[in-house]
Design goal:
three-stranded mixed sheet; 376 residues; single chain; alpha/beta
């Protein structure tokens, strides 16, 4: 634990020693006393930041998982009620004797602004941001500390996975959202991308990095990759903590899933416009897949089946991959549906956003107001 504290306070401690070299009249003892004071001020190293909107049942499951953590480290939990009409406060209060929790209610301004609000009011100097529909495995915080001790970074992200108790639909969507064959592992596979972009369902951010960037922007979704890019521009490093995973219990249906990924597709061209150096050809893949699939159907009608056969091969590989991963044939079948919805939803959103941004003189906020929250 002391090692973690020293790493987290590296810059402050170095400042102390710089003061010693400048003010030679100060004794070595007084210099160490200053450094010791900084450590003593760290009563809560980690602050968990959790925004919630009308989902008290999710908060209950998440807080219950906190009570089972095996860590001996001190931490606080900051719950930010983002203008909910169904309050989580009774649930939070029921855990107040077991956990160190702070509860804040504010007007609805979106998850990004709510996380910023939570970090502004948190006591720790390293924030861990979670979605309310996540559940922590018992070793979660131990893995975070182990990674920070091994190689300190100001921002990390962890993967998400499905628990055995999840529904088949949740498992199928989880496979589609995390499998290498569908996303290239961008949501949490080692060595899958050159620079890992943490996602805010499971993300760590130092107080120093928060202050430097001013936290999340008003766009949603897309506020997390936007923050990662701005961190890189300021010289901060991000890293995947592959063993610090969470169980992501999405409350979702096929229609909600399509709407979600469609928004993801709309957001990416906006991020490309804001940060041109981050453009990648791979972002076009879902759109190319969507257009290619439609063309293959038309060619099949004209008795030219080759292109359609290629898609059949892809789906066959995806089915086998899902079956091996989930060991459930029903989940594997639903995974094919999830993959199709994911590609079509994202691909259509990406094409629409790209077209609108290209031909219109309006700002992204004017073109897609549904993707932006106004900070209160």
């Amino acid at each position: 634990m002391l090692l973690t504290q020293l790493r987290l306070l590296k810059i402050k401690t170095n400042t102390c020693f710089n003061l010693l070299s400048v003010k030679k009249s100060h004794s070595i003892l007084s210099g160490f006393f200053i450094a010791f004071q900084y450590i003593c001020e760290m009563q809560n190293d980690f602050s968990f930041i959790i925004p919630v909107y009308n989902r008290p049942n999710e908060i209950e499951e998440l807080l219950l998982s906190f009570t089972k953590l095996t860590t001996k480290s001190k931490y606080e939990i900051v719950i930010i009620e983002d203008g909910s009409t169904v309050s989580s406060k009774p649930i939070v209060d029921s855990f107040s004797s077991q956990l160190n929790i702070s509860y804040y209610f504010k007007e609805n301004s979106g998850p990004g602004d709510s996380r910023n609000y939570g970090m502004q009011n948190a006591k720790g100097n390293y924030f861990i941001i979670l979605d309310s529909d996540c559940i922590l495995p018992i070793h979660y915080l131990n893995e975070v500390e182990k990674e920070l001790n091994n190689e300190y970074v100001d921002c990390f992200g962890g993967p998400d996975t499905a628990d055995d108790a999840f529904t088949n639909l949740q498992k199928a969507i989880n496979f589609s959202m995390t499998a290498f064959i569908t996303t290239g592992g961008i949501r949490g596979k080692e060595n899958s991308v050159n620079k890992f972009q943490p996602r805010s369902f499971n993300m760590g951010l130092s107080k120093k990095a928060f202050i430097a960037t001013k936290g999340f922007g008003d766009i949603h979704p897309g506020e997390d990759p936007d923050l990662s890019i701005r961190l890189w521009q300021l010289g901060f490093k991000t890293k995947l903590f592959s063993k610090a995973y969470v169980y992501h219990k999405r409350r979702i249906s096929w229609s909600k899933f399509y709407k979600q990924v469609n928004k993801f597709g709309k957001v990416r061209p906006i991020l490309n416009a804001w940060h041109p150096k981050t453009k990648k050809l791979t972002y076009w893949f879902p759109s190319i897949f969507t257009l290619g699939f439609i063309v293959s159907i038309l060619l099949l009608i004209l008795n030219i089946p080759f292109a359609f056969y290629l898609f059949c091969v892809y789906y066959a590989v995806a089915f086998v991959s899902a079956l091996l991963s989930t060991k459930n044939i029903l989940v594997a079948i639903q995974s094919i549906i999830a993959i199709t919805i994911q590609f079509f939803g994202y691909g259509v959103g990406f094409l629409k956003s790209t077209l609108y941004l290209t031909i219109s003189n309006k700002t992204p906020e004017q073109l897609f107001p549904e993707l932006f929250f106004k900070s209160k």
